[in-house]
Every structure is written in C-alpha cells, then in structure tokens.
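Bumping my old thread because nobody answered last time. Still need a sequence for this structure:
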C-alpha cells in the first residue's frame, strides 16, 4: 500500500499557506487504502531559535490545527518528531551519506541563513538530511508538500539512491513528491515575490489560521496589488504575481480551477474581488479556528494523541532503523 509522510514545523502559528499547501491536502489523502503519517517536526523548528514555552504552545497548536482541519488520529498517525528518536538516529547516518556540495545548493538554507550565514546553526544546514530521514524512516512512497519543499524531496531521493548504491542494496525507495492544486506556493500579501511563511516578521504578510474575520478582511483589503482590474482570462495573470496569488487562493479555497474562478470574477476591480475573497476565506477558516480553540482547551488530550501516535510511528520506524544499522555494519545485540 502507498504510504504518505509529511510534516510541519511548530515554528510559529499556522498560515493560510500551510493550510492550502499542506494540511488541506493531508486531509484529502487520508483513507482510501493509503497509510498516512503526519508529523509535528519540532526538531526542525529548533534549527532557528525557539523560546521553549512558545515551542510547547506551538506544538500543541499545530496538532490542534491538524485535528481541527480533519486529520483523524484513528486513521492517520499524528506525532511529534522528537518523541521518535529514530529520526535523529537515521538523520546522523544520512549526514554521512549526503555530500557538502549537495547541501550547498539548497535554496532554503540560503534564504533562512540570510547574509550572515556564519551565524546560522549547523542544524539549519543539515536540515534536509534530517528531512530525508523523516521520510525514509517509514519507507514513505509519497510526500505531499508545497512547491518550496520540492528541492528537499529531490535531495531525499539523491540520499536514498546514494545509500542504495554505496551499500549495494535496494533498501530505500524513491519517494515521490506530491505538489498539486492551485495553491502549492501561496505568496506573501506584502510582496508577490516571497512565499507566505509563518516565520515572516511581518504579520500583515500572512493570514494566520487563528485570525478573526476582521483581521482576515483587513489583511486582504491591504494586500499589495497592481492598480489594474483582474484580467478577463487566466492567461492575463502570467505577469501579475499579486493578482495571480489572490486568484490562486480563491481557487484553492473554493476547490475550483483558476479557469473556473476567472469565469466568475474576470474583469472585476480589486475593490470588488477582495471582499469576495475575504468572505470566502472567513467562511472556510472560521470553523477550523473555532475547532482549534476548542482542542486547545484540553492540552492533556492533545499530548495523549501525540504520545499514542509516537508509539505507532516507532513501531514502523524501529525495524527500518535496525535494518539500516545492519546494512551499514553497526554491531548490535
Ligand atoms: P517557516 O517560515 O518556519 O519555514 P513555513 O510557513 O514555511 O514556516 P513549514 O513548516 O516550513 O512552514 O512547511 C510546512 C509545509 O507547508 C510544507 O509542506 C511547505 O511546503 C508548506 N508551505 C509552507 N509555506 C507555504 C506556502 N506559502 N504555500 C504553500 N505551501 C506552503
Ligand atoms: Mg518553511
């Protein structure tokens, strides 16, 4: 059976980008003869500074977001990465498989380290090798991610292929990235050339899953656009990143194609389109944020769900790590 693995960092509050590019698609993949494993990747989050109390809250809030959006802990495995030590253990093996030259090509490191890369953590640099371990520890066949993670999933395939080649085995599968839909790269509302991110210092750049109706309407009203009305057809969006972003969000939220959306709103000025988009966003997000708040009332229940998930994840991961150690030549009991 196909096995799906993916994760989100508890590095801040969830955004509309995380919802459309990841969580909504995680929910859609649940069931129908697929095994689904979704992780709160707290070890990735600490590659940049996280206040410990905030990390605790963000881990529970992200789990609440998973649950509120429709992930079902009886049909999927939900857990946090640090509680299954095999991730770190396989991560080390992959640090010894991945090449410096490969890591140097990773654009996320360059974006996150910024100009002063000397001050970045070693963990931020090694992040993609740990991500490969997250995925390959379960022999996952499919990884739903946003467009920004495509390079890391390709690196995962390179690591699997080099491991298999070096040790003369077929042990690790070639995992497929799944990057589908109208909103695989939701852009910042302030800058059409940057992706929306939970760690962006500007709150106005993103819609948070916990924003109320007024905040959502205000952020969309203030979203940067050019002055022209929407084009009449989808092709006219090609050179207009901000307009394209808002239309893509509308399409993903309403589960339509961009062409269908343009048939409905093509030619409208932003003064008419933005309120439609705001109403749609509130209609889709409000029930989820209400549910999130309800789950957050009972942190012990969230912790219980994570602990149960960690046990089930470890049951899959431990034999795969043991076999990896054997292949590598680690003597064990
Ligand atoms: P950070 O700024 O801390 O990196 P993030 O918002 O980029 O946070 P991640 O935890 O790094 O979130 O990514 C979780 C998932 O959400 C990944 O699959 C990623 O591709 C997806 N994702 C993140 N941002 C977007 C976006 N703007 N549009 C679509 N998908 C996104
Ligand atoms: Mg990210």
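Sorry it took so long. Here it is:
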């Amino acid at each position: 059976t196909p096995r799906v693995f993916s994760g989100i960092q508890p590095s801040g509050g969830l955004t509309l980008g995380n919802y459309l590019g990841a969580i909504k698609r995680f929910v859609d993949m649940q069931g129908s003869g697929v095994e689904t494993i979704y992780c709160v990747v707290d070890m990735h989050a600490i590659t940049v500074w996280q206040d410990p109390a905030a990390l605790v809250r963000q881990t529970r809030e992200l789990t609440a977001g998973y649950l509120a959006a429709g992930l079902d802990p009886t049909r999927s495995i939900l857990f946090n990465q640090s509680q299954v030590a095999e991730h770190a253990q396989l991560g080390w093996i992959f640090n010894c498989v991945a090449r410096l030259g490969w890591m140097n090509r990773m654009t996320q490191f360059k974006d996150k380290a910024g100009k002063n890369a000397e001050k970045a953590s070693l963990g931020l640099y090694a992040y993609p090798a740990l991500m490969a371990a997250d995925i390959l520890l379960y022999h996952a066949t499919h990884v739903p991610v946003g467009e920004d993670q495509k390079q890391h999933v390709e690196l995962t395939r390179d690591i699997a292929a080099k491991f298999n080649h070096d040790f003369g085995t077929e042990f690790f599968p070639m995992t497929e990235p799944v990057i589908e839909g109208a909103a695989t790269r939701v852009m910042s509302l302030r800058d059409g050339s940057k992706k929306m991110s939970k760690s962006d210092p500007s709150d106005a750049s993103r819609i948070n899953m916990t924003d109320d109706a007024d905040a959502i309407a205000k952020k969309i009203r203030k979203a940067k656009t050019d002055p022209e009305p929407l084009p009449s057809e989808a092709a006219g969006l090609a050179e207009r990143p901000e307009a394209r972003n808002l239309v893509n969000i509308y399409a993903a939220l309403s589960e339509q194609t961009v062409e269908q959306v343009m048939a409905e709103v093509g030619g409208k000025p932003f003064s008419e389109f933005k309120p439609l988009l705001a109403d749609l966003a509130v209609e889709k997000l409000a029930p989820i944020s209400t549910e999130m708040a309800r789950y957050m009332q009972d942190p012990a229940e969230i912790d219980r769900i994570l602990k149960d998930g960690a046990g089930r994840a470890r049951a899959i991961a431990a034999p795969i790590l043991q076999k990896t150690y054997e292949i590598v030549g680690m003597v064990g009991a």
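Strands lie at 3-8, 35-40, 76-80, 142-144, 176-178. Let me know if any region looks off to you.
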